[in-house]
Model the fold of this input.
Amino acid sequence: MSEIQYIGETLWPGQLGHLLIIISFVSAIGATIAYFLAEKERENPVSNWLGTANWSYVIHGVSIFGLMAVIFYIMLNRMYEYAYAFNHVSDDLPFKYTFSAFWEGQEGSFLLWMFWHIILGWVIIWKGGQWRPAVMTFLSLIQVFLTSKILGTYLPFGDGGSKLGINPTVLLRDVQDAPIFANAEYLELITGSGLNILLQNYWMTIHPPVTFLGFAALSIPFCFALAGLWRRDYKGWLDPGLKWGLFAGFALGTGILLGSVWAYEALTFGGYWAWDPVENMSLVPWLIIIAGIHTNLIAKSTGHSIRATMVFYILAFCLIVYSTYLVRSGILEDTSVHAFTEMGLENQLIFFILFFLILGLTLFFMRYREIPNPKKEEDWNSREFWMFIGSMVIVIGSILITYSTSLPVMNAIMQFFDPFYQSRVVEDPIEHYNAHQLWIATLMALLSGISIYLRYRGANWLNYRKKFFTQTGIALLLTAVLTWATIQWIQVVAWQYILLIFAALFSFIVNMDHLLFRIKGNLKASGSAIAHIGFATMIIGIMASGINKTYVSSNVFAQSGMLEGMEDEDLLRNIVLIKNEPIFMRGYIATYETDRFDGNERSFDIRFVEIDEEGRGLDSFVLSPNVIYDKNFTQIEAANPDIRRQPLIDIFTRIARLPAQQIDLESAQAVEDSLRFETYYMNLGDTTFTSRHYIVLEEIHHSILHPDKEGSAEDDIALTLKMRVHSLDKDSAFTALPGIALRGSFVFRYPEQIDPLNMRIHLADTLIEDLFHTEKELNYTEFQLAQGDRFQYDEYEITFLNVNQEPWHPSYDERDGDIALSAILEVVNTETGAEYRTEPVYMIRDNIQSNFKTMVPEAGLHFRFTRVDPNTGKMTFMVAEQPMKIQNLPVQIAENVPRSDFIVLEAIRFEGLNFFWVGSFMMMIGLLFSMIVRLRNKM
Amino acid sequence: MKKIHIVAGLLMAGAVLLFVITSTDFGTYYTFAEAELLEDGRNVKIIGQLSKDKEMVYNPEIDPNRFTFYMTDEEGDERMVVLLSEKPQDFEMSEQLVLTGRFRDGTFVAREMLMKCPSKYQDDEIFVRSEI
Done:
């Protein structure tokens, strides 16, 4: 096949992108080698390797930034010839989500990770002092590995070569094989597939950058630990290592926290944490870095625990890469709600982890004996002793989480050796993780309390001992009182939870005491107190929100896993709310009041009235959860919760389901197809009986009265039958206003649905044909009248009574600047004496005259008010007689229509959730504060 | 023997204990036939595929927490399933289901379901403008 000359493609961004990738890869390798040589020659430099290395790293950074700019350019300009643009943006994607779309893809998220490594690397080049060459050797090496993920070259190994990375600027036609590429103008035909609607919110804009900053920050203490080992300077790195460790803890923790705010606020999980594998594997590296920060502090203060600190920093880094692997390999597909798909980089990621794990541990064990460790052991009454135990507890907790989360990996490994291996799975994840993390958290809280009252090295213990026991005793007493108060509020029964609450409150009190009365302005120590108070507060929040989580929309207290012996019935969560029918739920009366559209977003207003035991209303509020339809309203794409937040109570609501007709076109069609319509012929004033109802045709109008009609549209012909529908078995009656109209050449139908009766009423299309003939056949007579004048038309005497300056007509929508008036005409049939009144409307809008006709259906008279003569004051009217066919009007009625006026609602009441948010926020503040204070002391 | 080693050892022992205790939470995936034989009423996980040609019933007006459908497990055994929840969005598109539940009176009652859908953005379909 000859080469096709494609039309409309812009190829230079791809070529530039490819060039930048190669430059960044080569410069990262160059920087690694140059830093390595600079470190080797550090004692007596022969040549300026450090300068070369720094320049290489700058070039690496600039080329990655350039590459990101190229990708943004491609995405912003919707260049669908590029796979990345095709896969992640679409014509209708708002500009503000371009960033989200950028890091939706794996290539983009790798770039984001690299971006932060570059920034952090530049900070080290700028401020890193004598540690620069050693630290930057490892950081550049990490960048080599990361850059290889976007290299997109094929290596001649394995079956048909193996892929090394994926180039984000590759052309769509190079990665997808589709017949459409036989067309030289294929670009005209394709459009991007856009960004997943769930990701189109501002959380997606901020959560990934912060999380990846955390990822990148974890590399720095790791690099410092390796640098210390390499240089055999086992103590010098502890100071910068601690600062970076604190920063990493802050950044990654904030990233995780933002993710859980997102999960709670915008997604419909109904909670902030679900022990999902993806959540777990970002939590574990954070826990390890927290353990590392604690041992690092011990090492700085006492010289103990240097080895542990190194191991923790090495592990934290390797685990973050492992977490990347788990998330991206697709191995979690049976156990995680996060749908990630394979990208073919699994082996590369495994190599990445193993390389750095082996590098780190080899270096560590080679130097193990040299690493200083004080001969004198830690005393049991020293702070470092219990802090170390605390770190161990954190690490054990992390191991337990990692073990359970890695079951799918173990299954895959076992199945590799034994194809008949039975996969194992955690049966109830929330119950499982809560069961062991409960003990971990209890120990952590107790230790974070008790160690505060102890001193490093147990200094001056004999004199201090009495004070220690007094303080601890008072704290325990206070804790007991506070625990009693707390369990009155949370209503815990299980002793395990009471113990945890006790431990958390103990930590809270001790650290409060520490912060307020002991350290008195010692900034360096206040960071840890704030973080510990935050941790304790967070635990209280977890307990309160978990134990007192109530499905308001059901009838039972529930969080699976927090209470024993849950029956299936206890898990029922949903309730049906019928429009305008108040429903009593647990402690609330809920009424679904209205729904409204804003673009393709449909919100449902639900009024909640909180009631006390005697049924008196306490508090009333409206929540508006919504659903989002796709742009053509063919189906629902997502649902957003709405939450009422109060200091102690949150009410979370989400739309679980809508009537089938409103979910997507297909279901709507299926419902339509299932309807059975019967045709009835009706006459004015008569009563028609259907199988379960009787209907009285009360009025006939020549305009549309249905509320769905848009005011501005002008109908050429319209008909509404106003009818009263009664149920045969229930004592209820409804007014229906089904209509039909002709507008230009289109027929508009206004069927009426009476949900409580499962009834739908259509006017038959043939009606419009009858009417249309009528209008065409009309033979108008023109006449002029002044006010009070009469005109005789056949047997009718028409009197122009008055002018109405505020005319009303069903088709007339008032607008500023209109000149509109109606003429009140009295029509008397001189033979029968019957009297009628009608008000045809005359209007000038934008200098154009028009009029709205009226009818006297009983007489078959049609009126128009066509002109006003300002000089004479005379008005021109037109009248025509055409008895309308008002007999045997065909009306189609179905009586098996599913209701469409309800929602299926899930409503959850959380207590004390704000303790969780405030507590976790305080932990982050504490970490950040500690880092800033240490930075100010000495760089 | 250092004191810290003793405490660390105790901690480790505690950790192993937790490990053993919580490992009883690990199960294997069951088939319908195996799950039906269980008598202790505990919840198990079954992997399978939605039988798309069979009837799916969700009548919120009658019970918003009851959705029935048919699933074929990995042994090819097709059974009716009751899910104690709403019918999820895009259920028909699911490629794989993981149910957590148990047999009650001969019917598998699922209290939870994990649904795997084809990723909208990874399939090889080219969106053609005219269709949108």
In short: Confidence is low (pLDDT under 50) at residues 120-132 of chain B.
